[in-house]
Amino acid sequence: MAAENDHQNNLKLDRRGTKCSVFIRQEKPNASQPVIFNPDFFVERLRHEHPQVFTELVLSNITRLIDLPGDEFAQLTGESEPRVPPASGFLRSFNFLKRKDKGVVFGAPLTEEGIAQIYQLIEYLSKNLHVEGLFRVPGHSLRQAALREMLNAGAEIDLETGDFHPNDAATLLKAYLGELPEPLLTHRHYHAHLKIGELTRLDDKWNKTNVPDKERQIEAFQLLFMLLPPANRSLLKLLLDLLYHTARNQHVNKMSAINLATMFAPHIIWPKNVLASDLQGDIEKLNNGVAFLIRHSQKLFKAPAYIKDYTRSYFTGSKALQSKDDLTLCSKEGLMCAIPAASPSPSVRTLGGEVCSSCTVRSSETQSYTESALKELYQQVSSMPESAKKKKLIRQFEKQHLQTPSAESRSPFSRKHWRSRSLGGIIKRKVLGSQVLTEKENSRVQSPLPSSSSDGKGRENIACGGLVQD
């Protein structure tokens, strides 16, 4: 019996060793390909190292999804001051000013230190999602005052002792958000939130319907949240995650997503110092928008696939399209604005080398066919009997030949208007600057395009009409 037990124990040890060895082999990284654990690693790297390029990339895609007039777009980019509905309620404004004398947390600008203090409330509430009427039923005023004072003092609080009720923490969390100098979703993004809520599907005749386009709305919110200040984005993620799990327990706490949105919209998106009457017909839109954020919060803090692919290509010089989104990005007219050139980088990376080579081959084949067709036409005109019409045609051919470079001398970049007049072109000129563009134009004219190199450097390609280098 003992021998049998020893045999089973040895067998278990062998299995453990097998699992361990397999695990180690799987974890062994490939020397030729770095292991990246954060799928948004390159997105965050571009945000920190080249913030202007990052901002232009995100903005160009936001304007692809929603129509922002010049003034609203300027507010989103920070070029002009935000314009929100004015306040008309004297009592609300007076009370807001009266609450100004706060500590380092309540009433102070949003900081990481303040978020660390408020996170104690969020963590405590996440363990008490079963409380009926959570965020709706107010807490005890004396307990709230004591808890507020402790948070303002920067104290580490043990909320599990039973001295405080979940309703106290929930009421204080709403108060903290309501007393921020600026809404959590910021004044600059106010009009963008309204426009995203208006995104609807199209019918077979490309007319708008009343059915919300959830996929485009999620994509637009993903991009918009990438423009939030880091502290706002961090706290918003924590808050929406809490509200998401609260709504999932609505069978117990009786708080659905729309109920929670009604409670929190005035604190996180309403402009400061306004009453419900000041917002007129936008209240329902704002409440529905916040409810949408709660329901889809688990998807909103991920970068869209094409943003991740572009940022990866920007830093690694990838020569192949990474996903279907890249093909869509290149093929659809107007989406080239989503791939702005990067001036801070010492060299512009190649995006989609395989497509570039195929584009170049097709372009050369088309040029060759055009040249042969013109030669045949010229021979036919030359064989015509002498006449004024023949002389006129000959002069036109000679004039066109002088104005148009031949196929051998013509660079793949040469075209009448090499500067794009699309939004992508505007963004490129804004990011690169006129000086860099002028130098690039001169280099195209003065030097031929190297088709190959022994060290693999200095290659230039055209990816669907856009200039890329590596």
Short key terms for the protein model shown above:
470 residues, two-stranded antiparallel ribbon, 4 strands, 21 helices
Structure description:
With 470 residues, this protein is mainly α. It contains 21 helices and 4 strands. The strands form 2 sheets. The protein has a two-stranded antiparallel sheet. Strands 3-4 form a two-stranded antiparallel sheet. A hairpin with a 2-residue loop joins strand 3 and strand 4. Helix 2 packs across helix 16 and helix 3 packs antiparallel against helix 10. The longest helix has 30 residues. The C terminus is likely disordered.
Structural topology:
Elements: H1 2-27, H2 41-49, H3 51-65, H4 70-77, H5 90-98, H6 112-126, H7 141-152, H8 166-178, H9 190-197, E1 200-202, E2 208-212, H10 214-225, H11 230-248, H12 250-253, H13 257-268, H14 276-279, H15 283-295, H16 305-316, H17 324-331, H18 353-382, H19 388-403, H20 423-432, H21 434-446, E3 460-463, E4 466-469
Antiparallel strand pairs: 1-2, 3-4
Helix pairs in contact: 2-3, 2-16, 3-10, 3-20, 6-8, 6-11, 7-8, 8-13, 9-10, 9-15, 13-15
Distance between the termini: 70 Å
Low-confidence stretches: 11-29, 90-101, 319-327, 331-359, 403-423, 447-470
Q: Classify the helix fraction into a percent range.
A: 55-70%
Would you count the extended β strands for me? 4
